[in-house]
C-alpha cells in the first residue's frame, strides 16, 4: 500500500512536484511589487496623516479672515498665500482634507454597513429575504441620485455629513449586488456543503469560507466608491451646494473659480489635492485587485491542469525533420515520426511529448491511452495543428495521406481539417454554441467550405443527422443545444465531423462525459462509420474498456512517451512494459465481487461511546 | 439511542419511501420530483453501492440523507432515529455520525484554507478546542497516508488522488458511523483510483464504518460493495447482494447497464457487445 502511494505521489505526479516549487507569494508582497500601487498608497497615507494632524500642521486658523491680505501671495506665515477673504490657503487645505476624506469615509461606511450584511444574507440564504432585498435595492437604484441629494440638502440642511450619509445609502446597492453575487457563487461550492455536513454553524461557515472570497472585491469596490464620493462631494460644493463655512476642497475650488480672473493660482491647490487623492484611490484599488486576484488565482484552477500557456505569442520554430524511427514503414493514412511538443520559449521550454511514433491506416482504429498529463491529448492536437497557445512542435514529422502536415501554412491546414481530418472533442455540450440551433451550426461550415445553398445545406444536415442514427433529424435540427441530451450532442458533433467526408477522425475522449449505456451506442456508431466508410480513427482515451471494444491497435503513453505499442489483444492480455502492466492491473473488471455482508462477531466498542 | 437499534443486523441507515422535489425556477413554477419513493438501508459496517446514470437521482439520495436536498415526503432514519426533518442544531450533532466524501476533489476543498484547517473543521464543529484539533490532524494525515507537513500546505499543492485523501481524512475526523461517498474516485486516474479504493476498504475493516457508495461505475461498485442498489429515473429498480445483482440481474435496465460497461479484454468485450445488442433488440430499444 505505502509503496503504491509513493508511486502515486512521486512518479506519476509531475504536477505536484512542479506546484510544490512554486513560491507562495502573499497578497501583501504582491501589492508591494506594484510601483503604482505603492505610490498611490503613499500619497493616500500622506493625505490622511495631513488631515489627522491638521490642528498641529496648520499655520493659521482656517476661518480667520483678514481682508487686508486678500489674494496676497505666499508669505512666511502663509506658505501657499491667502484666498479672496484673506484666509490661509494651506490651513484651509489641511482642514478641508478632514471634511472631504471624512465625508467620503462616511459614505463608504454607510454603504458597507447597509450593503454587505444584507448581501451576505441574501446570497447565502436566498429565497424570500433575497426577493425582498433585491426589490428594495432595485428601487434605490432607480432613484435619480443627484435629485435625491439636492432634495435631502433642502430638507435636512446644508452639511457635508448629511449629504454623504444620503450618498452612502444611494451607493449601498452596488455593495449589496457585489456581495450577493459572490456569496451565491460560493454557496454552490462543494466545500461549503462539506462544511455544513461537518456541522459548522452558518456564522462559522460565513466566517471561514465566504468572507475570504468576498473580502477582495469589497475592498476594491470601497476604494473606488471612496474616489467617487470625493469627486461627487467636490462637484456639489463646486456648484455651491455644500456646507457654508466649513472648509472643504470643493468649496475652495468654487471660491477660486469665482476669482479666477483676479488670482488664477488659487485653483491649483484644491484641484491638485482632489486630483491626487482620487487618482491614488484608483491606483490603490487596481493594485489591490491585481494582488488579491493573483494570490487567489488558484481558485479557478480546475481539473486537467493544462500545460502552462504563455500570454505572449511564442515564435514557433520550424520543426526539424527527424529521421528517428524512419526504418519503420509509415502508415497509409496518418503517420507520426519522432514528434516532440514543447511549451514555452527557447530558454525555459518544457517538452511534454517526446519522440512519438504513431501510425493509423485506412479503416483502422488506433487507441492512444494514458493517464492525465501523459501527453496523449497534446499528441492528438499536434496532428490536428490545434495545440493550445504557447505549445509548438519542436521536432518530428506528421504526414496525412503522405502529405507533410507540419510544413503546411494555416490556410492549407484548414482545408486539411474538415476535408481529410476531422475532430470529435471530449465535452460535447461545451463544443456547441448555445445561441444557435443544431441545424444552423452544422449548416454553417457546409455553406462556407462546400459553398452549398441554404436549402442544400439543410438537406445535407438532415442526411448527416440520420447517418449518426438520430431519430427525427428534421426536428433535432431545429433544437437548441440545451434541448438535447449529452449523448445526442456527441452524435451531433460526430455528424459535424463527418460533414466534410473525412478519411481520418481524431476523437479526444469522445465518450468520457457520457453514461455507459450512451457510451455503448456512440462506440457502436464509430464502429459502423469505420466499417461503412473505411474511416481511420485515432481514439484518445483513458478507458481500457473502450480500447478493448473499439480499437485494432493501441499505443500506451506515459510522461510524454509511447511506452508500448501493439495490437489490442497483445497489449491488454500480455503487457510488456511495467507501466502498462500496472495500468492493466488497476482495471477492476476481473476483481472478485465483494462477499455479502456479515454481522460483526462482536459489537464494536464505539457504539457505546456514541450512545 | 436504544441498544436495540444497534443490535447486529439492524440497519444503521434506513430510507423509507423517499420523495425529493426541487422547487421550480421562477414565480410559482411547478417543482420537479427527482426521487419517486426510494427505499434502502445500510447496516453497520456494510457498504451499499448505489449505481445509476446521470440524472437518475443517485446523488440526490446521498444529499437528502445528508440534509442537503429538500425532502418532500418519506423518512430517513439513522440508528433508528428519525433525521428526516432535523433542525440545524440537531443536524450539527448528527455530523458526528454522518459524513461525506464528494466526487470532485478540486472543488470540495476550500482553495484558500490550509489542509490542516480544512481537517480541523469537523472537529471544531463538534466543539473540540483548536489546540486539540490540531493535534488530531496529524493522526488523520497518517491514517490516509499523507505526510504530516501536508497540514501546512494549500490544496493546490496536491494531486487529485492526494486531495481525495484529504477529503477522506476530513470525513473520518469525527469518527462517523456512515460516510456518504459520492463518486469519490471517478475524477481520478485508474492507478490512483485503485489506491484510494484500497484506502476506503482498509478504513472500513479497521473502524467498522458504513458506506453509502454512489457511483456510475459498476466495476468500482462491485469491488467495494456488499450490496448493490440500481437506480433508474428516481426509482430503485434492483437491490440485492452484489454477486446476485451482477450475475443474475432481473431488471432489464440493470442487465443493459451491466452489459454496457466495456471490459478491458477484446474477445470478452465482443461477446458482451453481442449480448447487449440482443438485450437491446429484445427490449425494442432504439438509439435516439
TrEMBL record, chain A:
Query: Could you tell me which InterPro entries the record lists for this protein?
Result: AAA+_ATPase, ABC_Ni/Peptide_Import, ABC_transporter-like_ATP-bd, ABC_transporter-like_CS, MetI-like, MetI-like_sf, OppC_N, P-loop_NTPase
Tell me where it mainly resides: membrane
Family the UniProt entry places it in: Belongs to the binding-protein-dependent transport system permease family. Belongs to the ABC transporter superfamily.
Q: What is this protein called?
A: Peptide transport system permease protein
- Does the record bear Zinc in its keywords? no
Question: ABC transmembrane type-1 domain: which residues?
Answer: 97-285
Topological type in the membrane: Multi-pass membrane protein; Peripheral membrane protein
Q: Where found in the cell?
A: Cell membrane; Membrane
KW Endoplasmic reticulum (keyword) present: no
PROSITE patterns from the entry? ABC_TM1, ABC_TRANSPORTER_1, ABC_TRANSPORTER_2
Q: Which Pfam families match?
A: ABC_tran (PF00005), BPD_transp_1 (PF00528), OppC_N (PF12911)
Q: Where is the composition biased (Polar residues)?
A: 1-10
UniProtKB/TrEMBL annotation, chain B:
* UniProt-recorded Gene Ontology molecular function terms: ATP binding; ATP hydrolysis activity
> Is Protease tagged as a keyword?
no
Name its species.
Answer: Luteimicrobium xylanilyticum
What's this protein's family per the entry?
Answer: Belongs to the ABC transporter superfamily.
> Which protein are we looking at?
Hemin import ATP-binding protein HmuV
Q: Where is the ABC transporter domain?
A: 13-258
Q: Which PROSITE patterns match?
A: ABC_TRANSPORTER_1, ABC_TRANSPORTER_2
Q: Where is the signal peptide?
A: none
**Origin superkingdom:** Bacteria
Alphabetized, the UniProt keywords read: ATP-binding, Nucleotide-binding, Transport
Annotated GO biological processes are: transmembrane transport
